[in-house]
Amino acid sequence: MLRKLFGRSENAGRTAAISLYEQIVAAARQPAFYAHWNVPDTPIGRFEMISVHMVLFLHRIRGEAGDLQRIAQILTDEFFLDVDHSLRELGISDVGVPKRIKKLARMFFGRARSYSDALDSGDQVALAAAIARNVRPDVTDWAETPAIADYMRRASNYLASQPLTAFAEGQVRFGSVLEEIET
């Protein structure tokens, strides 16, 4: 009771969410995505890879209640605060940022739906098609798409093996892209 009264639980959730977000960004910034799998190393390419990892994590904890639901909301808010900050660093005006955030939010939630549906059904072809459509819409035949889809499937399985208590404590692991390349 006192913990809730003084907000300690809320601060713990925020601390966990920020730690999770830092780990999600680190997973998304693995050089192999950009060097071996030809994800564009651009602001939008980085947005796509962070989105992939956000979706993987949120997919894992969906349906969970209590602290994890609160952490998921804080994590999502932190993601969009980071997007807002990045847009401002890119020189987008204060007037233009909300419009861009709205567009990027639609993009993110559309990706979340298509990636989650493909993961739920185990449809690697649909997952690869969604990745290609979202990450490299400029390329007709992106040869590395199946590898990224396989990485997402394996990361999803790896996340499923991790205890929820680790997430509540701000710890998450996705696995290494280099492990995927070597297998």
Verbal overview:
This protein is mainly α. Helices cover 74% and strands 0% of the residues.
The pLDDT mean sits at 89
Radius of gyration: 17 Å
Proportion in β-strands: under 5%
* SSE pattern, N- to C-terminal: HHHHHHHHHH
Structural class assignment = mainly alpha
Low-confidence stretches: none
Q: Strand tally, please?
A: 0
The biggest beta sheet reads: none
Tell me the helix content. Answer: over 70%
First-to-last CA distance: 50 Å
Q: Quick one: overall form?
A: globular
- Discrete helix count: 10
Oligomer description: single chain
Domain Ubiquinol-cytochrome c chaperone: 36-174
Family: Belongs to the UPF0174 family. Belongs to the CBP3 family.
Pfam families: Ubiq_cyt_C_chap
Organism: Tianweitania populi
SSE layout:
Elements (H helix, E strand, L loop, with lengths): L1 H4 L2 H21 L2 H5 L7 H19 L5 H23 L7 H25 L2 H12 L9 H16 L3 H5 L8 H6 L1
Helix pairs in contact: 2-4, 2-5, 4-5, 4-6, 4-8, 5-6, 6-7, 7-8
Key terms for this structure?
10 helices; 183 residues; single chain; Ubiq_cyt_c_chap; Ubiqinol_cyt_c_chaperone_CPB3; Ubq_cyt-c_CBP3-rel; Ubiquinol-cytochrome c chaperone
Short structural description:
The protein is built from 10 helices and no strands. By secondary structure, the chain is mainly alpha-helical. Helix 2 (8-28) crosses helix 4, helix 4 crosses helix 6 and helix 7 crosses helix 8.
